[in-house]
Amino acid sequence: MKNYSYNYSYITAISIVAALGGYLFGFDFAVIAGGLPFLQKYFGLNTYWEGLATGSMALGAITGCLIAGILADKIGRKSGLLVAAAVFLLSSLAMGLAPSANIFIASRYAAGIGVGMASMLSPLYIAEIAPAAYRGRLMAINQLTMVLGIFITNLVNYSLRNIGPDAWRWMFGLGAVPSLVFLIGVFILPESPRWLLLKNRHARAAAVYTKIGNTSYARDMIHLFQAPAATSSSLSLLLNKKVWPVLFTGITLAVFQQFCGINTVFNYTPKLFERIGASADSQLLQTVFIGVVNLAFTIIAMLLVDKVGRKPLMLFGAAALSIVYLFIVQLLGAKNPDVAWLLLAAIGIYAMTLAPVTWILIAEIFPDNIRTTATTIAILFLWTAYFILVVSFPVLFQQLGDKTFYLYGFICLLGALFILKFVRETKGKLLGGDSNAAVMH
């Protein structure tokens, strides 16, 4: 690959702005952990409604993915991000003001639409503006903002814990602040140059590429894109059996990232620590510790992903989680407070491996002509798996107790075997043109 000069400050700046969608993803993902104990008392939620209040975001995210897939192809990645930001803003206000459980759940569903749109559009946008050599770490910025959203939200939740029974309204309503920042920030973003090329707007694409790199970089990116495979994305192209292996890989990785079970720790931290007799105050404090570990190990992932590669990190994460879960079952069953260290270890492993790298692979492995549609499908499966996970966990934990984590450990073992056999390295490769090398044929 040629040596190009890049405008690193510009690339990083627009990547951070696009990744603010990840921050709001993290907010809506984490806020329920702090708000749920208050919601249970305020609305008298039983196990069923507890799962629905948590999982309604995932149902909205499924809808959001479909909307994002349509908007991303029709009106562009930037315009889609604008819509997502507006949805985040309105839904945060609606959750904070909800007068009933039904309206709260409907508002959280709407927030999920924004999450689904951002979860598809933010990494897609960053992948399409990032040079190949730096794509992994730039895309990891989206994961970093996501965990920052989780961490800051957990801190805010903890600081609001003693203000009264309406604390949950502030927890959810304050999401309007970063939503407004995101909405304003998206206006400064350029459109994705690859989308511009798909729409035959070569002059505008060249202008964006020239801001990212030098003129030779812009010329070569446009030339490489003009291969016969770089045609408009269409659902009908997915009927071609040649793309099925890569699509199957993307879907499986997306589902595995959720069924590995770690998000039960994020969303049900108070429930798990209640099991070992922790006070309500201590339960909320644990969410803060989880946020710190999540943030620290995400930064480590950013340093490793373009050096170590995607596949080694994924393999380590799946195998290590399967082992840690075995010990979690033992200590949780014995109500041993040391289980907190193992739960933090599981969070750290996930944050360094499966959490960021799955999103990177989903954005990298698909060819240009099916990327939007295939990414949408993969993330649809991801959010469906997340919904199944969080809705089923309260029931499974009630029936199986601590042994629920044996199930997640077995899934992690299967995931490791799948990664070993089917996933190939994408580190440093051009986006789209050689993505079929990411799967075993």
What does it look like?
By secondary structure, the protein is an all-alpha fold. It has a single domain, classed as MFS general substrate transporter like domains (Growth Hormone, Chain: A, Up-down Bundle). Helices cover 76% and strands 0% of the residues. It has 19 helices and no strands. It has helices spanning 8-43, 47-74, 77-97, 101-129, 135-159, 167-173, 176-186, 193-198, 202-212, 215-225, 244-259, 263-267, 269-275, 280-304, 310-333, 339-352, 354-364, 371-400, 404-422. Helix 11 runs parallel beside helix 18. Residues 227-233 and 433-441 have low confidence and may be disordered. The chain crosses the membrane at residues 12-39, 51-72, 79-97, 103-126, 138-156, 168-189, 243-264, 284-305, 312-333, 339-362, 374-393, 405-423. It is found in: Membrane. Keywords: Membrane, Transmembrane, Transmembrane helix, Transport.
State which percent range the strand residues make up.
Answer: under 5%
**Secondary structure category:** mainly alpha
Task: Assign an overall shape.
Answer: globular
CATH structural fold name = Growth Hormone, Chain: A
Helical coverage, percent range:
over 70%
In the CATH hierarchy, the architecture is Up-down Bundle
Describe the sheet with the most strands.
Answer: none
Could you state the order of secondary-structure elements as H and E?
A: HHHHHHHHHHHHHHHHHHH
**How many structural units, i.e. domains?**
1
CATH C-level category: Mainly Alpha
